[in-house]
Each structure stands twice: as C-alpha cells, then as structure tokens.
C-alpha cells in the first residue's frame, strides 16, 4: 500500500489569487504533504510549465505531487501521481501504462467508490460530504452515508467538499483516511490559513 499523507490540497488559481506559487508555498510550509495540480483551463504547454514549478516546490517541502487527469504531464515533470475524475480513463489502464504513478480517483457514489477499488486505484476522494461553494448544485452526502460507503471498501478514502477545520474530526469519525480541499487550506484573501 502507498504511504499517503492525511492532508490533500487541491489547487485553484482563481482562489489562490495573483501569487499562486507563494500561496502554494505557504500551504506547503504549514505541513501539507500532498498536492493535486488541478488547473483544467490551461493549455497543455501552460499546464506543463506550471507543473514544473509546482514540482520544484513540492520537492523542496518533501510533498507528493499529483496532476489532475494528465498522466503524460505527470510523467513529464516527474510527479508522484495522477488524479482521475470519475469519467476519466479507468485507473487500471493508467496503472498498466504508468505502474510507478500513484493513482487517485474521484467518486461521488458507492458504485463509483467500489469501481475505484476494483480498478486498482491507490485511493479515492469521496464527496461532497458537506454543502460546497465549488459545486453549489451538488447534493451533499453527509457523514452518515460517507461512513456507510467507506466501510464497504478497503482503499483509503479522503473526504472532500465543504470541509472546514471545525468539521475535520467529524470526517475522521466517519471513517475518512484524510481530508482534501481547496478553500480549507487558504485564508479568505487567498493567503494560506493557519492549520497544522
């Protein structure tokens, strides 16, 4: 089993503000050890160039770097892994092509969570657990359903969606391996909040 950190920061340039790399470094300096570069609006070259800079930062802080969906870019920048959206390639295919990459998977249902496990994903992210501004139309599953679903798989599952530091313990009590998020790691003005 892959050794995975408990805190999983997901990037968002719009929320990080103008000083993207500074905000990310502030997050890393406070102890986050896994980052997903999730900038879906960038061209391939822009994503690659940003990923190179982020890889440099994560290495400096001893943190793992996963690239959203793009296993090719993950390999090109020597990232640790890739995170697959629900409609992406099956984790088994990515594992076959890139056996050394950590493969995460986004799940939004029990069926999807079981699929991630059956397909050999190293971990899954399940949500939204709570109401979230990132996806206002998404119905939160809540901690009871989260626990019910997580209890049916053996892979590590991160709680995602509307998580604040006040809610972290509730997620752990519901069986979460760790917590993932965007805004929980940054302050209201795009500056890293205080957490570890």
Number of separate strands: 8
What structural category arises from helix and sheet content? alpha/beta
**Alpha-carbon distance between the termini?**
25 Å
β content, as a range?
15-25%
What level of helicity do the residues show? 25-40%
Low-confidence stretches: 189-193
CA-based shape: globular
Strand adjacency order, main sheet: 1-2-3-4-5-6-7-8
Rounded mean pLDDT score = 94
Quaternary structure of the protein: single chain
> If helices are DSSP runs of H or I spanning 4 or more residues, what is the number of helices?
8
Topology:
Layout: E1 7-10, H1 13-16, H2 20-29, E2 34-37, H3 44-60, E3 64-68, H4 71-76, E4 81-84, H5 91-97, E5 102-107, H6 110-118, E6 123-126, H7 142-150, E7 157-160, H8 168-173, E8 178-181
Parallel strand pairs: 1-2, 1-8, 2-3, 3-4, 4-5, 5-6, 6-7, 7-8
Helix pairs in contact: 2-3
Description:
- This protein has 196 residues and is an alpha/beta fold.
- The protein has 8 helices and 8 strands.
- The model is unreliable at 189-193 (pLDDT under 50).
Key terms:
single chain; 196 residues; alpha/beta; 8 helices; globular
Question: What's a quick, concise take on this entry?
Answer:
By secondary structure, this protein is of the alpha/beta class. The chain has helices at residues 13-16, 20-29, 44-60, 71-76, 91-97, 110-118, 142-150, 168-173; strands spanning 7-10, 34-37, 64-68, 81-84, 102-107, 123-126, 157-160, 178-181. It contains 8 helices and 8 strands; from the N terminus they run βααβαβαβαβαβαβαβ.
